[in-house]
Write a structure and sequence with these properties.
about 140 residues, mainly alpha, Lysozyme
């Protein structure tokens, strides 16, 4: 499978965002930054997999800290819906229990800055989503 369209991502995230903190727009921007909406991306240098590039450690952390009855397997992370579900639980864990998104999810300090700028642009001008998404790649 190649990358999903923006419209497909919107539906996917709307249906599967489990975050109580992060907006659908934030999740869409993060998936664009990580994979350009390609759910089958596997990082050859780590265990990062799928739209939100979840590692085995991230999936394990979600399983240890998510509501009863919620469980994910790392080998399911190329399933776009499960990746968004697990990834959005993980974002909330990063924000509330760990050092934040910048240190826990991404490449270090400032990682979320372009994602937040993209989120703001998507929220203010939803008629030109690709322009907003390009903020992530500046």
């Amino acid at each position: 499978m190649s990358g999903l369209s923006y419209e497909q991502m919107v539906k996917l995230v709307t249906d599967n965002n489990r975050s109580k903190i992060f907006s659908d727009e934030f999740v869409i921007c993060l998936a664009w930054k990580e994979t350009n909406f390609d759910p089958e991306v596997v990082n050859g240098g780590s265990t990062a997999t799928g739209l939100m590039q979840l590692t085995k450690g991230a999936v394990d952390l979600v399983n240890k800290n998510s509501p009863a009855g919620i469980h994910f397997n790392h080998d399911e992370m190329t399933d776009a819906a499960k990746n968004i579900q697990c990834g959005t639980y993980y974002l909330d864990i990063c924000k509330t229990r760990l050092a934040g998104v910048d240190k826990s999810f991404g490449t270090g300090a400032g990682y979320s800055k372009s994602i937040c700028a993209c989120e703001k642009a998507l929220k203010s001008d939803s008629t030109h989503p690709m322009a907003a998404l390009q903020i992530n790649h500046r």
